[in-house]
Amino acid sequence: MTRYAELNAQQYHALKKSPGLKPWLSPAFNFIKNYVFKLGFLDGHEGFVIARMSAYYTRLKYKRLQALNKGSQKWHKN
Question: Which residue from 6, 28, 36, 71 puts its CA 20 to 30 A from 54's CA?
């Protein structure tokens, strides 16, 4: 998952810069989309974990994109 976040962030970096609040709103919306709109809550704990991991991936992606936009080669995965 971390590797795909890295690759996706590099692709986004080549296309555009990260808008202001999107790195903070996208993970939250991603969780809500997967847990509520896609009925993940019907799967119980597993649905919660899947929605949470999807939001975590989105957060990693934007965290790496921010690091790329700042010119940093190092980034923290947490």
Answer: 71
**Whole-number Å distance between alpha carbons of 76 and 61:** 11
CA dist 13 and 76 (Å) reads 17
Per-residue pLDDT tens for 27-54?
Answer: 999 999 999 999 999 999 999 999 999 9
Task: Name the residue ranges covered by the structural domains of the chain.
Answer: 2-69
Helices (H), the chain: 2-15, 22-32, 45-69
Instruction: Tell me how far the alpha carbon of residue 13 is from its chain's centroid.
Output: 14
Residues 6+ apart with CB under 8 A from 30: 51, 54, 55, 58
Give the residue, 20 or 30, on which the prediction is more confident. Answer: 30
